[in-house]
Amino acid sequence: MATVTCEKLTEDEITSAILASAADLFSTNYGVWGPLAESKMGPFAKQGRRVRMSGLKLEEQCLPQAPCVHNTYVRATINGELVGNAFACRWLHEGRPVCWITQLVVNAAHRRQGLATRLLRKVREGEQDWRFGILSSHPAAILAALRAFGPGIEEVDLGVAREHACAIIRESPVTYVRMAKLHGSLFERGVTDGAVSSADSGFWVDHQEPLDTLKAIRDRGRVWPFGELVDGHEFLLLVKAEAEEWGVDGKSLDSTLSSDDKY
Question: What pTM did the predictor assign?
Fold first, then answer.
């Protein structure tokens, strides 16, 4: 296996060239617009067309500028080629640091190798986060986040989201997070679409790949506590950051993952 190098950069080290490279990774690997995207968002979001993002848009969406806000970028490279990255935003809630992953992307050719989890562990390295959050329509991103910051899918405590998600999201400097509307039986009564912990983010990306991954997880007998994935919505994960048990060099991490669970 080729050697993967993970590097963590502060906001001051994130150049326009880095943003352009990250935007290209997103635009060629993230996903395609879903069947309702054009009617909900406009003619640019034609079904099947790749979801694309410029460096300027990425900066606006993932690197918010506000007092007491700290942004971080982690990239993974193989022989100098960018194969994955993660953007994180940190702010204070009730005087304690919250870390929110604003983007997580892995090159399609390098998935299922534990790379997403390595990226998120690198985000965490040297930090003292109180809560960790992510919105994502892809179960693989949620599983990677749980391995990096939480107890794992089997022991995830949804009570953390029930108690803190509303206030943390309302205070978020990240616009798309702050504007998201909590949805699911964890937050409201009378939910009939099977959602448990999710949010309406108005992001109408195609859900076929995430749904295939979710089916594979369930076919292996795993419980998926976040419920169903509704169009225009993303799963919501908010957990208490657990003590680190593994390094970020990948060796100890890979030993904990089966071939079916490496994200």
Answer: 0.91
